[in-house]
Amino acid sequence: MIEVGTNAPDFTLPDQEGENVSLSDFRGSPVVLYFYPRADTPGCTTQACGIRDHRADYEAAGAVVLGVSPDPVEAVKKFADKQSLNFRLLADADHSVCELYGVWAEKTNYGRTYWGALRATFVVDEEGVVRHVIPKVSPKTHDEQVLALLGQIAAA
Q1: Residue 5 CA from chain centroid, whole number
Q2: Under CATH, what is the fold of the domain 12-155?
Q3: Greatest extent of the chain over all pairs of C-alpha atoms, in Å
Q4: Catalytically annotated residues
Q5: How many CB atoms lie under 10 A from the CB of residue 63?
């Protein structure tokens, strides 16, 4: 997993509208880069709707939020539309960015072993440096945690 103090690896992925988005597009603003396992599942919905509902808080911190999952564009579009999400979701269908950030891992659920994205968040500063890593995110407390971290960046 990418560590605090390293430059966040740049990447380009399509968003829910199919438009290419690069991390470097947001230099000059802090970026909350969060990885989630699968669109439209209960935990992922809780997390995404929390971000949607706290949009004003993220904007007040000057932060851009990017959600990344190993879903195809069609799935993230459906999820974004269904939940009225007001931030960008990125489709990492070949999981190359998940691998780049070290969040593509073997998982076990109900005795079944498979590969998937870990629920992890990286807070990247204005210069593109990873300032905080939350390796195991709780969907219910994600916003509280991330907004506190953004406050630390602003105070520094």
Answers
A1: 18
A2: Glutaredoxin (3.40.30)
A3: 45
A4: 44
A5: 22
